[in-house]
UniProtKB/TrEMBL annotation:
InterPro entries: Multihaem_cyt_sf (IPR036280), NapC/NirT_cytc_sf (IPR038266). Keywords: Electron transport, Heme, Iron, Metal-binding, Transport. GO terms for molecular function: metal ion binding. This is Uncharacterized protein.
Amino acid sequence: MQPQFDSWQKASHHGVASCVDCHLPQSFVAKYMAKPENGYYHSKGFTFQDFHEPIVINSKNSQILQRNCLGCHEPMTSDMLVSNQ
C-alpha cells in the first residue's frame, strides 16, 4: 500500500481529499455501515503487511469511489455527461 500512499502524496488530491473522502460513502449512515468491513480488511493488511499486489478494488467499493469522483467533480462531469448523450 506504500506505493499508493506515495502516489497520493504527490497528486493534486493530496491537499483536498483524504483516503476516506474518496473510498467511503459520503452519507453518514452508509459511511458507518461500510467502515466495519473496509476497516477490518485495512487493519488486517496494515497489521500483517498483507496487501496483495496489485491491489484490486471490489465492485461495491468501485461504485463508491466512482460516485465520490462524480460528486466532487460534478460541475465538470455534468457537462461531459450531458454532451455525451
